[in-house]
From TrEMBL:
<feature type="repeat" description="ANK">
    <location>
        <begin position="159"/>
        <end position="191"/>
    </location>
</feature>
<keyword id="KW-0040">ANK repeat</keyword>
<feature type="repeat" description="ANK">
    <location>
        <begin position="126"/>
        <end position="158"/>
    </location>
</feature>
<keyword id="KW-0732">Signal</keyword>
<dbReference type="GO" id="GO:0005829">
    <property type="term" value="C:cytosol"/>
</dbReference>
<dbReference type="Pfam" id="PF13637">
    <property type="entry name" value="Ank_4"/>
</dbReference>
<dbReference type="InterPro" id="IPR002110">
    <property type="entry name" value="Ankyrin_rpt"/>
</dbReference>
<dbReference type="InterPro" id="IPR036770">
    <property type="entry name" value="Ankyrin_rpt-contain_sf"/>
</dbReference>
<dbReference type="InterPro" id="IPR051070">
    <property type="entry name" value="NF-kappa-B_inhibitor"/>
</dbReference>
<dbReference type="GO" id="GO:0051059">
    <property type="term" value="F:NF-kappaB binding"/>
</dbReference>
<dbReference type="GO" id="GO:0071356">
    <property type="term" value="P:cellular response to tumor necrosis factor"/>
</dbReference>
<protein>
    <submittedName>
        <fullName>Ankyrin repeat protein</fullName>
    </submittedName>
</protein>
<dbReference type="Pfam" id="PF12796">
    <property type="entry name" value="Ank_2"/>
</dbReference>
<keyword id="KW-0677">Repeat</keyword>
<feature type="signal peptide">
    <location>
        <begin position="1"/>
        <end position="24"/>
    </location>
</feature>
């Protein structure tokens, strides 16, 4: 009984160690992968993966290669990594950003759709989320797509900032209206006590501020009380 228990246990440990050796990569391989991801050298990336380097390799700064490729517009490498079943699209860099967030920020609608529909990337995450990033640069279609696939319209960043607040700086009236028409809460305040109306004031977006204040009166039957006002 005792020896029959120990053998499979030791065999399992051996397999773990052996598989770890297989998936390990050298410093030179990491350097080569980083360069290839930045400069869209799909042949080099294909060779590295064939040699056993994981597609989830991090560059020396802790950035996953997929994020590096998206950031540097290396779309051939991006496609190759997405085609690999072993690629984890939800890995984040040291700032907590994942591939979907970068694609949403850059306005890459086709890539956003591929990440969500084919690779099942998480649409929601704690802290900054893809919808914040899409709203920041005024990307209406991407915001609409994320919403259609379950994005939380009042998602809170670590500073309690909402997508509506982030959309103000873009100046995209259509996006702001879309968010409001689909449940964005105009009353929410971030940790500094700012509402979207205060953010519009801060950015000098007078037309947007006035429009939001008018909407406030219609929604709540009272003038906007002003801000910022910290709630805690």
């Amino acid at each position: 009984m005792r020896s029959s228990f120990k053998f499979p246990h030791l065999f399992y440990v051996y397999l773990l160690c052996f598989s770890g050796l297989i998936s390990a990569q050298t410093a030179d391989q990491i350097t080569d992968f980083t360069k290839a991801a930045k400069f869209d050298d799909v042949s080099e990336v294909r060779s590295l993966i064939k040699a056993g380097v994981t597609p989830n390799t991090l560059d020396p700064k802790g950035t996953p290669m997929l994020i590096l490729a998206i950031r540097d517009k290396s779309f051939k490498v991006t496609d190759l990594l997405l085609a690999n079943p072993a690629t984890d699209v939800n890995l984040t860099n040291k700032s907590g950003e994942n591939a979907l967030m970068l694609a949403a920020f850059d306005g890459e609608l086709a890539l956003v759709k591929s990440l969500v529909l084919q690779k099942k990337a998480a649409v929601n995450k704690l802290g900054w989320a893809p919808i914040h990033y899409a709203a920041t640069n005024g990307h209406l279609e991407i915001t609409q797509f994320l919403m259609a696939n379950g994005a939380q319209i009042n998602a809170l960043s670590p500073s309690e900032t909402t997508p509506l607040m982030m959309s103000i700086g873009s100046g995209n009236d259509q996006l702001i209206k879309y968010l409001l028409d689909n449940g964005a809460d105009l009353r929410m305040r971030n940790h500094e006590g700012y509402t979207a109306i205060d953010v519009a004031q801060l950015f000098g977006k007078d037309d947007i501020r006035d429009g939001l204040m008018s909407r406030w009166v219609k929604l709540y039957n009272q003038p906007y009380p002003g801000g910022p006002k910290k709630t805690h």
